[in-house]
Amino acid sequence: MKYLLVTACAIVAIAAPECARATPQFAKETMLSCDACHTAKMGLTPLGRGFQHSSYRLMRLTRDGAPALALRGQAAYTSEPDPTGLSKLIVDEVDYLVAGQIAGNFTYFGEVYGLDGGRNGAGREAWIQYASPRQRSPHAFRATLGLVTLPLPLEPEAFRETNQHYAIWDQAVGANPFTFFDPHNALWLTYGNVAHGTSISALAVQARDKQSGLTSDGIDRMFTFKHVAGPIVLDAYRYDGKRPTGTIGDVFRRQGFGASLYAGRFAINAVTQSGLDLSPSGDGIPMTSSGGFLQGRYQIGSRSFAIGRYDGVEDGSGSFDRALTIGAGTRIGSRFRLEVEDVMDHHPSTKNTLNVVFGFAFADVGGSQAY
To answer: In the chain, what are the domain boundaries?
Structure first.
């Protein structure tokens, strides 16, 4: 669980939605904290004004043009015993990030986990991107190539403000290991203004899931639609793929819709998803799946927030799993954060889990470094 460099990004998303819908993607691609561009009163710093005037492109992340570097991580306590024997209190994540400009309109981004879930980690993202000069234009264009997190209404890892995962992004069906949470190698093309207006994306995705043991089975396809209208954001997506799950391989699809409302200190996000697998267990027997979540968030002052989310998934086996997560978090200084949450999970019996997370971040770019 990480929201990149600062909880302030989420603060901006509540208090200034017109600016904020560009900010998370900008923060992810440049590793700059939100207050590097935004002042406490939601004005713009000189860097922010320069970014706006250059059509939402930042050609140099540091004053001397050197790459931007960051280290971040978190310690986590959970009241639920780990089935593999890990301690309840662990160093949960440590990851390293680098971003910079190659030449002209080309940039790159890389993220590697040293630790993930208390164990040795792996690469999360590693890509290069071309962005056309006028990103505020309705005809803006971006092309991204490499290991990417698939585009969804809410990013499954980087801006998740709970230790509890989004259930539908973790959902797998039968022996098909595909999930939206895992990154994939892809060519990702985007057309339109992603911050204000309408944009569409098309992805050609390598049909391989990390550590699954299955061989690659060609190219999967993903299409997305996003429309930003003032405080309302609408999303739609569809993913079509194949996996060699057994004697009869699986041909599957996932499709979903999202709607978000940003009003003052409140944010409400809703996503629903459905799926169809023709042979998820390799036996030719089809299976449907479904799920979704409803999330609400309230900003308390300039440093703290309260959040609640209801998740529900049905994987085709007849069981309906659901969870209610209620929590709060605060930023401590410029480099640290603390979060506490209670998860009431029904899977199939009901249990309560307490999660406590203490996070840190350090970077060589301006603004607050806590995320």
So the answer is: 8-363
